[in-house]
Amino acid sequence: MRSIRILSIGNSFSRDSFYYLPGLLREAGYDDVKAAYLAVGGCSIEKHLQMALSGENYSYMKNTDGTWVSTESDMNAGLADEDWDYIVFHQQTGASGKPESLSCLDDLTGFVQERCTNPGVMFLWNMTWTFAKDYSREAFDYYGRDQMKMYEAIAGTVRSCIMTRKAFSGVVPTGTAFMNFRTSYFGDNANEDGLHAGLYVGRFLAAMTFAAYLSGTDANLLGKKYCPEFCHFYNMKAMREAVNNAVEHPFDITPSSVISKRRLRVLSAGDGRAMDSARYLWDFLNEKNIAATVGILVCGSDFSYSDSSYRKKSGPSGWTEKAASLEEALNDERWDAVILSGTPDDLVENELSPIAELLKKIRSDRRPKLLWNMTWAYKDGADVPGFEKYGNSRQLMYEAILSNAKDRIDPDRRVFSIIPSAVTVEIMRSSYLGDTITVNGVDLTEDIGSYAVSVTAAAYLTGIPAKKFHYLPENGKDEIEPVRMIINDAIYYAFRQPYKFRASKYIEKAESGLDAGFGDR
Fold it and tell me: Left, alpha or beta for 341 (phi > 0: left; psi -120 to 50: alpha)?
């Protein structure tokens, strides 16, 4: 049995780097994987030493079976928890290009070495990524607000302060992988908020760098079996290339060869919510220089699809419309993804099986990925058939939607992944907007409501953070623009915790000014 035990002592960048690591290490051939990190937000090397000496507690996250479990632990207990094979260190981001910030590193590594239960433990340095070019906080001022200057400062610091220390066995070049990846079509979109790794693509890129470095596996062999989200699949070629080049040339940026305009063909199918979820999808994809084709197939309440309304858009000239069956729509394009929308019981009993059977008829190398759109609960008091099974309660229906997605859909191998639109909508409803984004208790308004779930789909499919999309429809622009901060915040937390509810922080309407960012986290 091939085993690996790896601990990171760091901050939120440890979380970002390790989030997808256990799955990738298993794919790389490790049977027994234990990964963990001791983290405090924004923690520096100096602060780690202070916490080690004082016995302060960290957030301690550990993964032994594919699930991250959260507890608290001081450094001594964390170090003694396993016979760690590797212990990873990294500096606080703003100081990562400052050699003088590592003056107490020897004291910290000495403290750790004395308390390790494995005498053969190896220390690694995580050479983390730079800020995005548009990062607005003052920490970027030290580097002249220049991303390349910051990268060179980080690489120079690692060369002069880490490579020269005998305590360290190697450097994991996550920052170089980010710089390589940024030269691809993806551009400078790998940071979630200008600082942290993007929840889907940025985190997967960092973890793939670790997995390739630790296992010696060619990144082209990673992400074949372990590919949890559609955007991982969609961006895999560019990520693999960026990682392989970073591992081979850890201190040099290698321009990507994956720079051409991409295609993405998406069919949204189901009841009226299929229209809501894709109304502006083509516009968002087009904004990011994606050659998109978006189809929308809206069936009746019986999900028969025998003579459904079918719309398709491949360019700025607008939508074409006709009647089509489900089979006709599926064969109209070489779709990359098919997104299903409807209520939980409708989808499982009436829609998922027929679509899955039709997809089997499509040649395997051309078969689209089947995605589940976790749609939203009805408005309290809505006069809608079937709502009575949830006691006419929005909350009870929302809980049923989450339970259905987690317990029935997520384990279903026919479904590739899940888009958490329901969570986006529910978080927005907890803001000062309240339950004003539906028009009949079910369908969303064409302005704020449809915009929110369309950008949820665009961000999920591409892996580009929601706040990086700027398209605004002419009809509804005045209503949408002032509340983009509510939408972006809701999508961030929907992606971060798709089976949990977090109330919006925008409880009261701001007096003035626009803020499309996430605020402090």
Answer: beta
Spatial strand order of the sheet with 369-373 comes to 320-324, 308-313, 290-298, 262-270, 337-341, 369-373, 417-419
Q: What is the mean pLDDT of residues 314-322?
A: 94
Helix axes 230-248, 448-462, angle to 10 degrees: 40
User: Which amino acid is located at 107 in the chain?
Assistant: D
Beta bridge partners of 381: none
- So what's the pLDDT on residue 180? 98
pLDDT of residue 5: 98
Question: Terminal CA-to-CA distance of the chain, rounded, Å?
Answer: 41
Q: How far apart are CA 219 and CA 241, in angstroms?
A: 7
**Cβ neighbours of residue 85 under 8 Å, at least 6 residues apart?**
3, 4, 5, 6, 118, 120, 121, 122
Cα-only R_g, the chain: 24
By three-state DSSP, how is residue 262 classified? Answer: strand
Q: What one-letter code names the amino acid at 421?
A: S
pTM of the model: 0.94
Which among 298, 347, 349, 301 is positioned nearest to 324, based on CA atoms? 298
- Identify residue 359 by its one-letter amino acid code: L
The better pLDDT of the pair 386, 488 is held by 488
Residue 342's pLDDT band, with cuts at 50, 70 and 90, is confident
- 391 Ramachandran zone, left/alpha/beta (phi>0; psi -120 to 50): left
Please state, in angstroms and rounded to a whole number, the distance separating the CA atoms of residues 498 and 496: 6
Q: What is the 3-class SS of 340-388, one letter each residue?
A: EECCHHHHHHHHHHHHHHHHHCCCHHHCCEEEEECCCCCCCCCCCCCHH
Output the pLDDT for position 516: 37
pLDDT of amino acid 360: 87
Is residue 448 within a helix (H) or strand (E), and if so which, with residue range?
A: helix 448-462
Only one residue has tokens 């608290």, namely: 72
CA distances from 470 to 74, 333, 466, 473, 490 (A): 43, 28, 9, 10, 16
Spell out where 46-199 has E strands. 58-63, 68-73, 86-89, 122-126, 168-172
DSSP-derived 3-state class of residue 39: strand
Torsion on CA atoms 427, 433, 435, 437, rounded to nearest 10: -90
Q: Dump pLDDT digits (tens) for 261-317.
A: 889 999 999 888 999 999 999 999 999 999 999 999 998 655 667 778 999 999 998
What is residue 298's three-state secondary structure? strand
CA-based torsion, 210, 216, 222, 228: positive or negative:
negative
Instruction: Give strand pairing partners of 216.
Output: none
Contact 75, 7 (CB under 8 A): no
Contact 269, 346 (CB under 8 A): no
